[in-house]
Every structure is written in structure tokens, then in C-alpha cells.
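Re-run with default settings, no changes from the original entry. Doing this only to confirm the output is reproducible before filing.
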Amino acid sequence: MPLPLGHAALGLATHDVCSKNNTAFSQWKFVVFVIVLANLPDIDVLIGLLFKGNGCVFHRGPTHSLFFALSMGFLASIAWRFWSQIPKISFGMCFLVILSHVLADFLFTSSQVSFFWPFEVNWATGYSGWGDVMNSVFLQAFQDIGIIIGCGLIVILSRLIRGHPRSIRTIANEFRVFLRHACPIVSCEPQRARKPK
């Protein structure tokens, strides 16, 4: 299950891959805002802890839905108008970053999400008190290492493709030459007809 670091990496990777702005991450406020958006659906854990003493009581409900991603994406995209410290990010990008959390929970966990809330509601089961939540956030963060590495590779590949299309062609040509030399029987190129002498 992705924890806050994993969701942060997924949100940052989503923004980097879907955005044309490669310099956005040089501003710390921008990075913090994207991390907050990527973890926003888990606000239900905090609400459950504050009101019921159980982080699971409201988890995977309305905040893990398409409606939440749309509505919070809209609010996040206009938040800069009310507080100048918030960076200006488009609605579509805010929506995608929040949605990355919901999709990650759907794909990487066995618990269902309430993707089509209010037409469906799936609540997490079990008990998760303050100690359990703090333990998973701070002591089990190593579980997200695979997600973080994968997101890093996706960002590198995306930037390589966007920034240096010639190098991708060069790599593809070198791979084709390697295949031609490694497997002379199976040639990647059509054989040229030999001229009679």
C-alpha cells in the first residue's frame, strides 16, 4: 500500500510527465503544494482520528473518488487567488495529481476505493489509532522505495524523451545494430537484392 512518500513520488511524477514545465520543481513551494495534493485523499484518516479515534473509520470513502479529485482539483487550481503563497497550477494538473493517489490505492492495495462515490461507498476495515498511523508514516516508509524508484525512472525517461529526442533515436539505432550483429539470421532490415555479376 502506498504511504505518504509513495503518494508524493507518484504525484510529482504525474506532474512531471504531464507538464511541459521542467523548472517547476526548482521552487520549494511548488513541490510542497504538489505533495499536499498527492496526499489529500488521505485527509479522511486524519478526520477519522480526530473525531472517532480510528483512522480507518472514514478511510477509502468519498475522498477516494472521482468526484473528490474533480472538486478538490478545481478548488486547488483557484486557491492562489485567495492566498498568494500557493503556486498557480491548472485545474487539469491538480485533478491528475489528486487522482494519482486514488488510482495508486486502487492498483496497489487489496482494499477497494469509492471511485464512483456517491453511487458506491467502500470503507476500509479495521482499527488504526494514532500510534498505528504514526508508525506506518514514519517507520514503514521503506515500503514505498519501489514506488519511489519507479517514479524516478519514469521522470528521467520522460525528460530524456522530451528534452533529447535525438538521443532516443540514437539508442534505438544502436539497439537495432546490436540485434543485427547478435542475431545475423534474424535481420531487422530487409535484405537488398544482389546485382548479378
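Confidence is low (pLDDT under 50) at residues 184-191. The radius of gyration is 23 Å.
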